[in-house]
Amino acid sequence: MNGVMILVAIVAIGAMAAVVWLGVARSSASAAATVERIQRLAPEPPGAAPAEKVVKSEEEWRKQLTPEQFRVARQKGTERAFTGEYWDNHERGVYRCVCCGQELFDSETKFESGTGWPSFWAPIRPSAVATEMDSTLGLTRVEVLCSRCDAHLGHVFDDGPNPTGLRYCMNSASLTFEKR
Ligand SMILES: [Zn+2]
What we know:
Elements lengths: L1 H39 L17 H7 L2 H8 L18 E5 L5 E4 L3 E2 L7 E2 L8 E6 L6 E6 L5 E6 L9 E4 L4 E5 L1
Antiparallel strand pairs: 1-2, 1-9, 3-4, 4-8, 5-6, 6-7, 7-8
The structure holds zinc ion.
């Protein structure tokens, strides 16, 4: 009886490991496809990148930002879905970095993703954002950062709408909005 139970446990653990492995493999492939898609989007010529970086100490950022903004933008946090200021914002205008004020996204590229986070199919300029591979939570995702001050903005996925097929899934807490 004990032997049977051990066997069942081994099979169950094996099956779970396989499921986790498949999930990780799939997210890695998807992350690679996302990066490839971003690179295909006619990158700007060298020199188009922002001239100077904004560098501040953790203490300076903490003073400038609300606790939620600091947690998300400087500590790579994620706001809870449907709680941010902009997921349901339909006004026309420009979204800027909450930390350094750089223009990041235009409302023209915002779309209804149904995720509860503001979602865009492209940044305002390719050089406005930087991307990095993020392997936390057992998933491989592509992190999106402000290219000027390295604020964490969110992640980008390859299941977005035309014309790019990209979904920049952003945190409202990392953005400010300027109405046109
Ligand atoms: Zn910034």
